[in-house]
Amino acid sequence: MMNNLNKDKFDNIKTKKSLIIGLSLIFFGFVIYLFFGLGVEGQATFRLSRPTDPFALPNLILPAHSFIGLSALLIAFFGGRIIIKAPKNFTIFMALSFFLAIAAFLVWATAGKSFSLTGMLQATVVRAVPIALAAMAGIMCERVAVINIGIEGMLLAGAFAGALFGSIFGNLIGLILAILVGGGFGFILAALVVTFRVDQIIAGVAINIFVLGITSFLTNHLLKSNPELNDAPIFKSIHIPFLSEIPVLGSVFFKQNIFVYFCIFIVLISTYYLFKTAYGLRARAVGEHPKAAETLGISVIKTRFNHVIMGGMIAGFGGAWFTLGSVGRFDEGMTGGRGFIGLAAMIFGRWHPVGALFAALLFGFADSLQQKLAILRTPIPSEFLAMAPYLVTIIVVAGIVGNAKPPQAIGKAYVKEN
Amino acid sequence: QVTDVGGVDDKSFNQTAWKGVQDAVAKHGVDSKLLESKSETDYEPHLNSMVNAGCDVIIAVGFLMGEATKNAAEANKDSNFTIIDFAYDPTVPNILGQIFATDQAAFLAGYLSAGVSKTGVVGTFGGINIPPVTGFMDGFAWGVKHYNKVKGKNVQVLGWDPDAKEGLFTNNFDSTDDGKAFAQNLYDEGADIVMPVAGPVGLGSASLADELGSDKLKIIGVDGDWTQTDPARKGVYLTSVLKKMDVTVLSVIESVKSGSYSGGITVGTLENGGVGIAPYHDLASEVSSELASEVETLRKGIISGSIVMNK
Amino acid sequence: MKLKLNEISKSFGPVKANSDINLTVDCGEILGLLGENGAGKTTLMNILTGLYKPDSGSILIDSQLKEFHNPREANKNGVGMVHQHFMLVPVFSVTENIILGAEPTTIFNKIDLTNAKEKVLKISSEYNLDVDPDQLIEKLPVGIQQRVEIIKILFRDAEILIFDEPTAVLTPQEVIEFFAIIKNLKKAGKAIVFITHKLHEVLEVCDRINVLRSGKIVGEELPKKTNNKKLAELMVGRKVNLKTSRQIVEKGEVLLEVNNLSILSENKEPLLSNLDVKLHKNEILGIAGVQGNGQTEFIEALTGLRKISSGKISYFGKECKNFSPRKIHQLGVRHIPEDRQKQGLIGDFSLTENIILNTYYEKKFSNNIALNWSNAKKEAKRIIEKFDVRTNSEEIIADKLSGGNQQKLLIGREMSRSINLLIASQPTRGVDVGSIEYIHNQIVMARNKGIGVLLNSTELDEIIALSDRIIVFYEGRVIAEFPSNADPNIIGLAMAGVN
Amino acid sequence: MKFFIYLSNYFSNRETIQEIILIPVIATLLAIFLGLLLLIVSGSSTQIALTALVALFTGSFGSLSAISETLTAATPLIFAALGIAVGFRAGLFNIGAEGQIILGGMAAVAIGFSFQLPFFLHLLFLLLAGALLGACYAFISGWLKATTGAHEVITTIMLNLIAYRLLDFFLRMPAIQKEGRNDPISKSIFETAELPRILNYLDPNLRVHMGFIIAIIAVTFVYWLIFHTTIGYEFRAVGKNLDASKYGGINSSMTIIVAMSLAGLLAGLAGATQISGILGRATPGFSAGIGFDAIAVALLGRAHPIGVLFSSILFGALIAGGRAMQVSADVSLDLITVIQALIIIFIAAPILIRKLFPWVFK
Ligand SMILES: Nc1ncnc2c1ncn2[C@@H]1O[C@H](COP(=O)(O)OP(=O)(O)OP(=O)(O)O)[C@@H](O)[C@H]1O
Ligand SMILES: Nc1ncnc2c1ncn2[C@@H]1O[C@H](COP(=O)(O)OP(=O)(O)OP(=O)(O)O)[C@@H](O)[C@H]1O
Ligand SMILES: [Mg+2]
Ligand SMILES: [Mg+2]
After folding, report:
1. Superfamily for the C254-495 domain
2. Is this prediction's pTM over 0.95?
3. With contact defined as beta carbons under 8 Å apart, do A339 and A154 qualify?
4. Atom 29 of ligand 1: nearest residue by CA position
């Protein structure tokens, strides 16, 4: 009796929730039409390929006003659907609406002008890479319950090592050494938090400051006096045969450099590792309930060391992107907070590699979008566009992630008694 | 010398000025001190410590240091200052402001690139929206406009609108990564020649051009001749818009030595050779002989005043 | 397989947890290990399973010397332990928990789940321990979780099985099932160590009983040849009267009245439904029940730590709708929380700071803005004195106190003030017997002084010893009420939901 | 005088002299030593290293102007680090000081130039405005944490990034932007809104200003607040054990919000004093990473007001000395950053220090 009693409790909760979401979607659609739809005319021209491309696609030309009107209508329609049907999870519809909203915005911004959509998407992927890698590094550490605020520093170290050693030994060895340096800092972090039980966040902050200092110092005392040490050959983009010829997709995914390819690879591999393999299971156990793991003969200490070092290496690789994957030259503090955004992406993605990747792509998109709009010169101040991803993160962390659980033992030092 | 943020090895702005100092060291054996500013809060203390270090002349490199330099100069009437890219009115007795008519040189570069461009689109972007930077961009845009007028073509300039004074800015002078991204962005929009006016940021653009190949994307350097400062990628530089701070700095130092120093303003122009454009080096082949000669006549025209750039 | 422990000693700083302990277990034998809290039982077993290193002494299995540096080595030698506090990962599935650390894998270290499940199912049918291998641990009741723990050690083919207070968390019903299980295991020829401090249990299942007191073996008994009283005295080391003397007092007017109180969890499952409870002056009302049947939520609701969904709570005749803990405290309602480490005290606050934890804002200790430390110190000194908390200074941090002394500090804080009603939750958990008697007497005295006491304890003996009236919680409802002289077995049944 | 009483309290306070004095001192010396080692390893002569060392000391405490520079650099650190310390005490890790400083500065500038007022009033307004806006900005994180449990580390980091953009936008607003400039730079504040330089009568170049004195007052106030008031007790209780604080009848959400806002208030003051004492106007880089150094300072001072005071002065000295180092030995300022990081690591890992120098702790 009690059961079906709270069963219909459940139902009316659901319906209430769907009512709220539905209505807000309808409102949202309305707002979009109000802001973007009214008073725009002309067409938005999105260039999909360069004249030089083998199969050049015609430009995608959209009549601004009607397109925006349509997407606004669709969003409203989804809202209505949710209210009536009260489906199990609204996420698909909300995602779709979100997508439509962005599309509408783009069309509005481009009305009467044109820009290269492909270019923007390509930039999106490129911009997402360091963030995604930072997030992967974060996941590796936090899955074994070690908070790694030091990722920013590790990225920077990787960038520096990449530039320096790349200039001396060529980019491949440079990359390897960058990874090792990252791993080195991973080791230091592990030693500090696991062995010496330094507060995890303090240790991370210290690493950030330290790396910032030492890299800048060496830049001034080593690289300035001999510039040839700060001029590494970069990894040029590799065009994957045939695939790269596909219009749009081709140049977005298959005309990139190894960092992009490896980034995707790392995401896949680490998903497999964490959720399919025995080692992954043990790692997660250490993150959730170290004592239990210990009683089953899993060494918490070793596991944490290994994974934090692994995280460091991924960060080192991500750092190398800034130099070997971009301009081949190190500038002081050139990582510019990507490590922190990576952490946000990790939480956004709920400590899951794939989720984190998508979060990173979102940031990357916002990043490149902002540059396009600078050319299109919209009335919206670029500063506000630049804020968008950070605002989104805050909303997400406050709203969605409120109920997503991090590994249980996170932040706690493990004391082995004997 | 106190540098602006960006560092003395920026292959451009600070470095060119510093070269002037080193020339002086080489020629006259004066000794030199360098303070690099990490942030704008460093300007004043740095200038002060230079004063305390008892320098004969303190060289402030950069428009952004205008305020700080003025304060320092007024607080220390008896030490000599010179600042690059800032002109005070009324002038301060113990500051020599060095400014440059870079728009004249950039005008030539603009005309040149309009002539060289295959896609009919050229681009530029700046570091921060301040006169010393936008001077370049104005000239560049005007140059292209002039080309369109005389040739009846329609070459587009992306990244700067000289009338609205709006355009693309990285809002920093140090992120080469941005340099690459912005160049990529312009390239995606069809530009095949880009002039980055943001000190070392431009190196990022150069490395993109290097990656794509100079047939797809060419770069125009600023301040110094980038084929000299960045020989590794000399293949991608169509030319550079020269702003010969090294020369002026050297002369200021000499004037101090000879006691002929006085505050005020000096202006570098095409006429007095304070500004100019670099030889075409590797990409000379891209520049047809008649285009080259047109540019030369333009130069004369500007000096003589027969050509008014902005119309 | 035969286990022999030889002269095992282990101490933690000041505490000698184990000293020169000898014991043996045979295959197909159940050895009972009896001892008070803190006697050293867990420590001994942790040594046996390689979690702790002994300071001295040796372990022999089949009369050959063994040394375990970690649990895995112990496992390899067939030693497995079901821990007092379960060692299960809540967000993992049953199977994942069982195979953890001994996963069957295919290529690329991929876990072979199907294979694993088969093994699990095989074991569970063999010893009829039925579980759903795909269920998440956090969704399972403790009884089932314990089965998972057992399967976990059998999965590692343990021959020597150690159960650390396995019954503490079980309903009488589950206890009976559990006994059936270990008897099976015994038949299967396993050597079993069964730790508890419940006398009747050892008498019921064990073949032999060793009694541990403050780290030493103080006697070995055979169930047939001994009895409750004898064991109790061995365990505690002196004559104990298991009943606290409690002269009957006439109960007075109603102090606390709860009318059809209900509480829902965040995901709207009922934690308490339609509760009706009355507590009178001069009365000790005992709440019996197995952990997790709503007692905790009930206490939290009464003390303002949890919002109620419907119903009505009235103290001293006036309703207190969602009062804050402070308001309720101000009514003279004192609360001894069930987990002193987590709720009652702040581990690295000094004793003084802890003494003012819920009164720091009062006139006595502050003028609304600034604190009056000297008064606080005086108060701390007084309480430490009065409730003989063993410490050398009121400035040391609470963590440094032993469990029992922490408890005394807590009780002292709550009972040394103007008090009209006492809510005591697990007041003697993890406290040595000397302190237990002391605390019990304090509670009875309070009640005699005309205070109403609400006593919540999972130890049925404690409830029976103290209460004037007993209510039994089951699945968030009061399913039975008994007078103080009721038969424990019937109460036990009620705790299991049988009416 | 009062200050010294606090000082003695501080030492009689639970932590032992060893931990309070010995470890930080050793950590600092060790860090400086390693820094110089790094200098030598990276190819400078021992000669230069020694000059650098000397410059480090003379440049920080060697002369009146050196001391003035030290204190000037320390002033904003004291405010911001106090804020972070308050956060720590309430169990909050506030990485957002940078953003709070920026907003504090923005408010200060706006008040500073937008209207004329008599000297003291104007200054007062400016400081209040800075403090207030800083507090509001931090309030967001506190409120989100209390209501939704959003982790303050993430929200504050994001708010920092947002603050930079806000500043850029703010500095380009016609109302704010310096007339005749189209780069982001604000108008300059009026004389009446400037913090007077306290050693002006000795030498106009001594930049140390009233802000330092206000900072000292803030230190004593925060000390009193944390250890001698009910609010402080609540902060610490919530910080140490949330459940117990709830049991004790403390409204933990409220406490978190208040603590965070207070942290922001102090950081806001840091921004305001920086504007009105040193810069006189705002530019994109005016916060100069003070908010991040302050984290280090707060850790170094073990979240204790007096500790914060000393470590701020230490960091100020490192910055001032670092400049001198740059002039006389041209060693780049970054060496200082390295030293700072090393100090933090050593302080945070006392076990390490004890292992390295067992004889000191006998
Ligand atoms: N890790 C430890 N560090 C210090 N002392 C400990 C530790 N573990 C146990 N002790 C102490 O050793 C003694 C024995 O503890 P143990 O847990 O073995 O008792 P127990 O018999 O299991 O009690 P309980 O019935 O409560 O489980 C107690 O005084 C306990 O406080
Ligand atoms: N986990 C632990 N880590 C460190 N010390 C501990 C731990 N547990 C207990 N101790 C220390 O061991 C001693 C005994 O602790 P415990 O709480 O077990 O006392 P006890 O034997 O249960 O006596 P009591 O009956 O007073 O609780 C105390 O001094 C306590 O500080
Ligand atoms: Mg035990
Ligand atoms: Mg105990």
Report:
1. P-loop containing nucleotide triphosphate hydrolases (3.40.50.300)
2. no
3. yes
4. C38
